[in-house]
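Notes continue from the previous slide.

Worked example: a multi-chain complex. Inputs as given:
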Amino acid sequence: MLDLIAGPSAPGQGPGPDSETRKRIATRARQTLLLDQAMLHERAITHTDPRDLLDPAGRLVPVVSDAWGAETTPGTTSRTQDQDSAEDHDVNDAYHGLEHVNAFRAELFKDSSPKGAGLVLRSTVHYGLHYSNAFWDGAQMVMGDGDGEVFNSFTSSLSMMAHELGHGLLQNTTSLAHHGQSGALNESLADVFGALVEQYVSGQDAASASWLIGKGLFTDKVQGTALRSMAAPGTAYDDPVLGKDPQSGTMSGYVHTGEDDGGVHLNSGIPNHAFHLFATALGGNAWETAGSLWFNVVNTSALPEDSDFGTFAEQTLLQARRQNGAGSMVERALADAWDAVGVVPRALDPARS
Ligand SMILES: [Zn+2]
């Protein structure tokens, strides 16, 4: 069984923080690394009616609320559209995050997708005291301030904020179950969305992008650059307290575990890596061909609730044929990417015929 925190660098061993401090930090960090959708399992999900989130002109309305250290949502409204900057920089960072994600949505869907409005631009900041996590609660995203030891404020990473808002979009456009491979696919799609928002806002093409999720979240006490790496899963951090990034980028390293809803944040590295390989093989801006193909599949293919990686791979290949024709360079690059990570498209898998 894989354990994110234990192992050679288990809390309480070696030099550095004392045993109790290590245990405390490790426990908090473990929560963050695994449970960004925790609330989804604790409350009935009611799909948000997108019409409730539009102003009379049909624009999505971004709203940032402040929980003032309580563990309640949404809190009091701190900034919404057409208002000046707030005094609180976390409020402003969260607000800019909502604006960036909305701008990317318009670019990605060319504002033509009827499901594009599945995005919900609602955020609560200052949730809890030194709360070291961020999550999508089924209706909005929620961010803590971090403990200052392992984590900075969760408003410090655009890819992380966009990941959580991506969960909102996916909740309103798919029915993927949040466990096993369908859950890992859900996490990967949220990572792809998060990475693409950051690349779009920074004007980075596929070759120059970092492909990191959560860059800036770790304090400088942590030996690591981000929560996850899409380019090289398993290399985002290697720290005496946190241990080593446990993600694999290929099916040969697939983690079979009962924890983390069956490894949804662990095995998401596999489709993440396939997307990175596909986008970098195509070159140019990752959101244009690769990203639009991925989210066309999400919006049009009615992925079954129990979709596994092979099901998704097959749908992406069918979409590539529809968009670019059979035998196109795009289709070949995509087939090579799935092959490189060891995912067999469903129709080609002899075990399923
Ligand atoms: Zn997530």
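Summary box: The chain is about 40% helix and 10% strand. Residues 205 and 285 are 4 Å apart (CA to CA).
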